Amino acid sequence: MLYLTFSITTVSMIRSIFIILFYYSFCIQPLFAQAITQVHFQYHAVTAAQKDSTVQQWLQPYTDSLNHYLNSVIGFSLENVYKKKGGGPLGNFITAAMLQQALLQTATKIDAAFLHPAGIKGFLPQGNITIGTLYALLPYTNRLVVQQISGAILEEFVHRMAADGGWLSTGINYAIDVYGKAKNIRIQQQPILPNAVYHIVVSDYMANGGSNCSMLRSLPSIPLHTTLIETCKNYIQSFTNNHEPITVNKAAQFTNIYE
Amino acid sequence: MNRRNFIQNTVKAGLFTGISLLPAGNLLAKNSMTETQLTILHTNDTHSQIFPFENNSGPYAGMGGIESRKKIIEQIRGTGNPALLLDAGDFCDDSSIYDAYKGKVELEAMRLLGYDAFTLGEKDFLGGIDNLATQLKHTGMKPIVCNYDFTHTSLQNWYQPYTIIQKENLKIGVLGVLLPLHDKISISGIENLVYLDAVMQANKTAAILQQQHCDIIICLSHLGDRYADGRISDEVLAKNNQCIDVIIGGHTHQFFKQPRLYKNKSSSYTLVNQAGWGGIQMGQLDYVFTNTTNKKLIRTKNILLREKKNE
């Protein structure tokens, strides 16, 4: 798709494209048989110079105070907290934060929290936790949504997660059999009742049907206007305010059955 | 639209300009006419990407950033031809810089780069309507929106349905449309933003611009290029307008390699272009205006912005 033609300046290099030069005949008036229209369509990459003093000067105060903000310490972790297949301690921690935030904002009982596995990148390192740590950990712009879900649809949703090897969750426990089917699903330690109504908190990405969550799309929803980063920040600070390092639930939310 | 279609369409468009040139008898007579070249440069969905994409951002690593963008803009302005710099909305997004400054930096960056006009996208409302109004007023930036009624919000009196920009002897009409926000974002007071039909409003506004004898009418659109379900999009607007020459699109993050050309309601053509997202791509459309004929598109360049690698 990229062909070579020419370059604009010494600092910019163009990998181009194609030039179309076409002629066409105009039959009605043979006197002016030929008109030329020349159109260049170009699609190319440009390497621009890196620094611009005007931009640097204007941006400096913002980057300084932004870095100060990103480096501000909000909590402490005693150990590295990792994401594992289907969640792991880090998945438990972040979904626990979602559950707490939803509880605080809606003042209703929230039964479970879920997050799609790709929502987290990397791990939470041992030591001071800064705001910047959270931006690196949660690069996507997810916001929280509380949804009302019937037991039957919730079960369908759990099967969808189990087929993937389990997602990040808090409040729900199940077993996954060799066929990737969820078994013995329990919400808040109780079996799921198909006709009962539950409240769950998920990311807006999932609520809009992302990651094959189409069953969530038409559920009654309350958007919380809170980002996942803000949610985790508040959760971590709730430990720090008690002069404690963060507590992480390491128990797996589901078990695999091999038989 | 594939390349062949585009060429075919362009031949048709060329025919039109060709026909109007024919009575002049001789194409060499072109020199006796006064010619003005106009370059339209445009971005969309820059999503708070003030800096180039970080090294761990996969295919986009090291791309974009306002310093690269400024260089391109300066190069084009340096040619001496009038240049128009436009943005089709979503200059903000959830990011550390947006969380810290709520859109102030993004708007100041647009002011610094000398944007001539811009419209809004749904993400620009993330910090709330009042916050958006405050940031727009503080930076002195007025968005172009013709299919929303903001009268009952703090944005009242701080947006225009269209603007007319004079560049040398050219009169350029710019209008703006954005998608129905209600199912895209959830912010308090959203019920006070009154959506008006995009096609109807765009036609109404473009007609005003035509009455004012604009040489070219450009629509900044945050509708999205096209959808399978046929809901309102740039494609729908392009096919159902009377006198819009160019639609600068956004929202769907499409990296157009070349513009799409549609036949509109007045058997003329409306061109749609979109420049990806994140400030990775810039679109460029070069028009030539002569005093005897109309405008003619002579060149389109869609430019990918890469930062110089440290070696």
Largest sheet of chain B: 6 strands, mixed
**Low-pLDDT segments, ≥5 res of chain B:** 6-32
For this structure, what is the CATH homologous superfamily of chain B?
A: Metallo-dependent phosphatases
Distance between the termini of chain A: 52 Å
Number of helices of chain B: 7
Please give the number of β-strands of chain B: 13
Q: List the strand order in the largest sheet of chain A.
A: 7-4-11-6-12
- From the spread of the alpha carbons, the general shape of chain A counts as globular
CATH C-level class of chain B is: Alpha Beta
Strand percent estimate of chain B:
15-25%
Oligomeric description of these chains: heterodimer
List the defining traits of the structure above.
heterodimer; A: 259 residues; alpha+beta; 5-stranded mixed sheet; 4-stranded mixed sheet; 6 helices; disordered N terminus; B: 311 residues; alpha/beta; Purple Acid Phosphatase, chain A, domain 2; 6-stranded mixed sheet; 25% helix
